[in-house]
Amino acid sequence: MSYRGAPARRSSARAGLRVASTKDRRIHSPHANRPRRMIAAVIFDLGGVVLESPLHAITAYERARGLPLNAINRAVVDAGEAGAWARLERGELTVETFCAPFEAECRACGIAIDARDLMARISETTVARPAMLEAIRRLRRHGLRVAALTNNWHHGDRTVGDGLRQEFDVFVESAAVGLRKPDPRIYDVVCRELGVAPARAVFLDDIGRNLKPARALGMATIKVDDPVPALRELGTLLGLELVG
User: pLDDT by residue (tens digit) across 11-57?
Assistant: First the structure.
């Protein structure tokens, strides 16, 4: 789950946070006409795709604290790859060691937060979307390999993905591999684990920036703004009924 892309060991995730952007529009795959027989695997982001988006919890937190909307996102972006959020998603920090530096970065941006409270609220929003789970099961019944590719973080010995692992053939977490989306290397990792070439995979994510490296590698991509239209698009690409 992720803020503009990110990775985990045993984690608790947005399974990352998403950076809101006016440019974050639906990305249509240039591979929409590829034959179904070419597609061997489907790769899903978790937060905002298989799970509800953590952005709702962040927005609610900002409103409750009287913070400007999108202020936390701006603090994450301003800190960049050396910032606490990126380090958390790469597995370099745990939630426990993340809170103090992240609060300091927020203060530098003029906002005061309680990072532990924020992360607890995010963890409470990790609810699975039934339509996505049913589609994943149908894909596997049709012989397709299915993977999760998520930006998330260490939280003791738990991970938000623990209850979902059995739904996937491959489960790649940013904090476990030390890479976070949109680093192109993490897409190579998931394809290697699936045993498929990128050109034989489809990737679904709710963040446009995370889809670009996948497309550059040759994957078909689908941007998930709402699960049902996204699943219809996936079904059309595969020649399968995935909704209803």
Answer: 444 444 544 343 444 444 444 455 566 999 999 999 999 999 999 99
Task: Please state whether the peptide bond connecting residue 227 to the residue before it is cis, i.e. omega within 30 degrees of 0.
Answer: no
Give the separation between CA 130 and CA 34, rounded to whole angstroms.
Answer: 28
Q: Which fold has domain 55-124?
A: DNA polymerase; domain 1 (1.10.150)
| β pairing state of 41-44 and 145-150 | parallel
Q: Are 155 and 12 in contact (CB under 8 A)?
A: yes
Residues 2 and 194: their CA atoms lie apart, in Å, by 22
Specify the domain boundaries for CATH 3.40.50.1000 within the chain. Answer: 11-53+127-238
Whole-structure pTM value: 0.85
**Distance between CA atoms of residues 85 and 120, nearest Å:** 15
